[in-house]
């Protein structure tokens, strides 16, 4: 259904998007809608079709069937939307003997972009103090930020990043996370393909999950995490009581196991009251019953282990 005149089109929309390479079906008829102004994570096992989908969105590969729109324009008319899209695919490539600033100036000249954007983008990615240094002296995290600066030169409405945290240390990942949050707050839609699920969970507010080229889920991150069955973390006054807690949970039909000095029980929060009563009847004192939030990694593994559509 087309959006109304006063409602902007989604940043990314696909309908029945399919890509076949000979006998291999890389992307199998996916329907995606990415709203504007979000950080959208794009996850799936290796070979799930993420890179092929991104290449179709950037008009680098033509779909076999179906259609896609980026910023309201069809991907078979790339000139209508590519000037408004910034992309960092498979790591940035720069002249190592040139400075960060000079590399961006070359790209600005080639793209017909005012050079004033160069210093502005160096400020955005917090590289202004190292802009005069040769790129070969940059850390991997600095090179990734310079790559994002290059993608931001044309003032994009949409930023597409393929594995932007690849090879980064924890400090570099934290820098990247803060940068992307600032860009989203400025109104830029960000579409991130990544294998680092813990980082996607902390960065993204929207999530798209693929497996074997098929769409398993798309929607708000909180909506996906809420799909996983609840989990209780239980500690006892006496460690010997943990076995009793496991037995109570199993008798009630819940999966339970001892982990790092406490018991993890896959059960809804309402089971906590029953558990406490039955533990007291058994002479076991519970000192902690906490509800654990399902992680994206746990939810992802649950989904991709089966055939949830």
Compact summary:
This protein has 309 residues and is an alpha/beta fold. The protein is 33% helix and 27% strand.
What does this 3D model show about the protein?
This protein has 309 residues and is an alpha/beta fold. It folds into 2 domains: 12-223, Rossmann fold (3-Layer(aba) Sandwich); 229-293, UreE, C-terminal domain (Alpha-Beta Plaits, 2-Layer Sandwich), CATH 3.30.70.790. It is 33% helix and 27% strand. It has a 6-stranded mixed beta sheet with strand order 6-7-8-3-9-10, sandwiched between helices. A 4-stranded antiparallel beta sheet has the order 2-1-4-5, covered by helices on one side. Helix 3 (116-124) packs across helix 4 (140-152). The radius of gyration is 24 Å and the shape is elongated. The mean pLDDT is 87.
Secondary structure elements and pairings:
Elements: E1 12-21, E2 24-34, E3 39-43, H1 50-57, E4 65-70, E5 73-74, E6 85-88, H2 100-111, H3 116-124, H4 140-152, E7 158-162, H5 170-185, E8 189-193, H6 197-203, E9 206-211, E10 214-220, H7 221-226, E11 231-236, H8 242-251, E12 255-259, E13 262-266, H9 271-281, E14 286-292, H10 296-305
Helix pairs in contact: 2-3, 3-4, 4-5
Per CATH, what is the topology of the largest domain?
Answer: Rossmann fold
Q: Span between N and C termini?
A: 22 Å
Q: How confident is the prediction overall: mean pLDDT?
A: 87
Question: Poorly predicted ranges (pLDDT <50, ≥5 residues)?
Answer: none
């Amino acid at each position: 259904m087309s959006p109304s005149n006063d409602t902007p089109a989604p940043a990314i929309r696909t309908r029945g998007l399919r890509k076949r390479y000979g006998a291999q079906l890389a992307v199998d008829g996916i329907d995606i809608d990415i709203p504007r102004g979000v950080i959208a994570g794009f996850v799936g096992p290796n070979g799930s079709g993420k890179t092929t989908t991104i290449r179709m969105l950037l008009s680098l590969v033509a779909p076999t069937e179906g259609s896609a729109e980026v910023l309201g324009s069809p991907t078979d008319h790339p000139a209508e939307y590519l000037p408004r899209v910034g992309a960092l695919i498979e790591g940035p490539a720069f002249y190592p003997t040139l400075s960060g600033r000079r590399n961006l100036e070359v790209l600005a000249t080639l793209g017909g972009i005012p050079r004033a954007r160069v210093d502005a983008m160096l400020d955005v990615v917090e590289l202004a103090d190292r802009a005069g240094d040769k790129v070969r002296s940059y850390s991997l995290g600095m090179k990734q930020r310079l790559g994002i600066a290059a993608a931001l030169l044309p003032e994009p409405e949409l930023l597409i990043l393929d594995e932007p945290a690849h090879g980064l240390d924890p400090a570099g990942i934290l820098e990247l996370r803060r940068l992307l949050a600032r860009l989203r707050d400025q109104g830029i839609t960000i579409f991130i393909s990544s294998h680092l699920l813990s980082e996607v969970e902390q960065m993204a507010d929207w999530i798209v999950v693929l497996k074997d080229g098929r769409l398993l889920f798309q929607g708000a991150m909180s909506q996906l995490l809420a799909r996983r069955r609840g989990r209780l973390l239980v500690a006892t006054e006496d460690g010997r009581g943990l076995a009793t807690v496991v037995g109570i949970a199993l008798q009630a039909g819940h999966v339970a196991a001892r982990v790092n000095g406490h018991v993890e029980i896959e059960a809804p929060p309402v089971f906590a009251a029953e558990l406490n009563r039955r533990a007291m009847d058994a002479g076991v004192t519970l000192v902690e019953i906490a509800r654990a939030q399902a992680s994206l990694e746990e939810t992802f593994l649950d989904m991709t282990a089966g055939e949830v559509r």
